[in-house]
Amino acid sequence: MYQRGEVVLYSAHGVCRITDIVRKTMAGETAEYYVLQPIYEEGSTLFLPTGNEKLTAKMRRIPPAEELLTLIRELPDQPSLWLEEESARRDTFRDIIARGECSELMRMVRTLHLQRRRQQEKGKHLRLSDERFLKEAEKMLHDEFALVFHLDRDEVEPFILQQIPEEKRA
Question: What is the pTM of this model?
Answer without folding.
Answer: 0.86
